[in-house]
Amino acid sequence: MFKNFILNFDLSNNYIKNHLKHLYFDILNFKLLNNFNNLSSFWFINIDSLISSFLLAILFLFTIKYFICNLKYNKLPNKTQIFFELIIIFILNNVKTIFGKIDKYVFCLAFTVFTWILSMNLLSIIPIDIIPCILKYFLGINHFNIVASSDINITTSMSFCVLIYIFLYKIYNNGFLNLIKKFIFYPFNNKFLIFFNILLETVNIFSKFLSLSLRLFGNMYSGEIIFILLFFIIPWWIQWLLIFPWFLLHIFISFLQSFIFMILTLIYIS
Q: Is the confidence at residue 13, as pLDDT, over 60?
């Protein structure tokens, strides 16, 4: 029995490693690589995460454009209009509560962050084997991870872009010199403590960067692992008893992580 448990654990471990790999693109040789061991250098990108996140962004833009172009102010709005209005009102209320006022630039950032991350998170409800099997049959591609938010490179890039946006927004509203003064004279307004101020603010900015990227990555990556473990270890005839509740919980976690990312962004920019 113990031997069978070790064998199942080894098989599940290999299964997890195989299904959580990415489709790599070697920048130096301009080649697609299905195996991490074939990489000749560290100059590679996870092309599957970029493709899925980019396609979702395009779909998001066209959906918003279509909704705005077909918006009709009727006394009885349709279900689509009610759905979008609920999302907009929800984000507006959070912006007004945290930021103190309605700012169009802050609202656009919050709306983009929330909807884009939520759409990436919800892709995790698609069975993990479907897309790789289709691509392997037609294109010979073995690995393709469609959940971009479970890729540390994507979450890190998004966090970096949010921080850059925050700095640009602060410069736009307060000026570059005021931003530098606040950086070197906060929290201690003393010229002899400038070094400690710079050190503390650097740690503060780095902690914000990590809090945005690692929280989203950790939750989505662990969710993918739990789905695989439930599928592989538990017998098929009782899987639905655990998978369905975890499926509902995972949808809630996807929404919650999008909400937390948006809230932290609003807090940092305020």
A: no
